[in-house]
Amino acid sequence: MWVKTHAWAQTGRLHPAGPGLCAAVAAAVVLLAGCSSGTAQPGAHGHATAKKNSPVLSTLGAPVPVPSTVERWGSFFGGSKAGNFGTKSVPVKVTLPGTVAEVGSSNSSEYALLTDGRLYAWGLGTQGQLGNGRWASSLAKPVQVRFPAGVRIASIPTDAMPYDTGLAVDTHGNVWGWGDNGGGELCRGSATAYGEPVRLPLTHVTALAGASNHAVYDSNGTVYACGQNVSGDLGDGSSGSTMTPKPVAGLAGQTVVKLVASYANSGALLSDGKYYDWGMDRAGQLGDGRLGRSVNVPVLAKLPGPVAQVAQGGSLWNNGQTLVLLADGSLWSWGNDRYGQLGDRSIEPRATPVRFHAPDGVTYQSLATGSMTSYAISLDGNVYAWGVSHVGQLGNGQHTRAQGPQFVASGATSVSATANNVVINVPNSGS
Questions:
Q1: Are 137 and 143 in contact (CB under 8 A)?
Q2: In b/e form, how buried is each residue of 231-241, taking b as 16+ CB within 10 angstroms?
Q3: pTM to 2 decimals?
Q4: Which class in CATH covers the domain with range 19-38+57-425?
Q5: pLDDT digit string, tens, across residues 300-323
Q6: How do the domains of the chain map onto residue ranges?
Q7: What distance in Å separates the CA atoms of residue 421 and residue 109, rounded to the nearest whole number?
Q8: From CA 189, how far away is CA 203, in angstroms rounded?
């Protein structure tokens, strides 16, 4: 939800056989079996995941993954070559070789975690951010992120990942990173780039997020930060950068349930519904009622009730915004609103949270926000977008901004947005 250099964009396995063999066996068995089911299967975290087709048995007796799709739009950017790549102004399907549990995004790439613990990526790859060891892009075709044998991924950050860098947490709570690592956000003591995942020096990780060249991690109940400290975004009370983990100040003894990040900001949602953020404040990004006073320690956002969900976004110095869904169902936002990304049909910056609303008769269940475009999924799976759309971020085929929600797609269960791109999980859309 952030950007590093682009003036417009912002800034959580099993291998029974190779993908080619699995696809061939699956195709043969489907022709023989011709069966389908509308039942729900448990996902990677115990949640039911709807499936169009039930797993069928191969001739070898092992379950054959049934392909599923996600949808994406907007554009990728990053690396050493300027410009936007893979631009789509309406949703396009990306087919994965199994049921998708989670989707995630960075400025330059997108990720899909399958229920069997495999992780796939697509987009720009010249900084190693696809994690397949090739340092090459794959804009439309997903490639498998190459973890060491026996590593099974349990989660990926959905809001969001650092610049040209990927993150994931395995089933043992170990965190893995790969890609650019330009500010040392992988906490390994250097800014070395990695074409395949490497294990980071953090254990029992339960939440994580990154943006630009910094990242935050909840490890063993303590929130740590690594990377560049552009405007207090490490939250450790200093103005210095670090390539090794440093504790975020003021959160000791608090239970964190969600971490978020954007260009020069970070945030933590606590189990009691309080939301703290820190970093840049040029457009009121901190939501504490003050404008233009950046802080290097967490401050409490002034909200009328406990927060159930939070999304943070922004790009460079001239913007940045946060959207929250409260436990009572009300929607609030603050920060920059130059292109209507706060959803309150204004273009004025907001240093104190303001209320915004879903369309009449619609209830939002989840939120996301990119550089200067915001997104929501309704209870019935419809996707809405509002804000800027110069490279198709709205997903409605238009390249003009929208100050109110625009219908984009249906059948979605989750959404992730970073920079100028967005990806949704649509488990029943077919391949």
A1: no
A2: bbbbbbbeeeb
A3: 0.86
A4: mainly beta
A5: 999 999 999 999 998 777 779 999
A6: 19-38+57-425
A7: 8
A8: 16
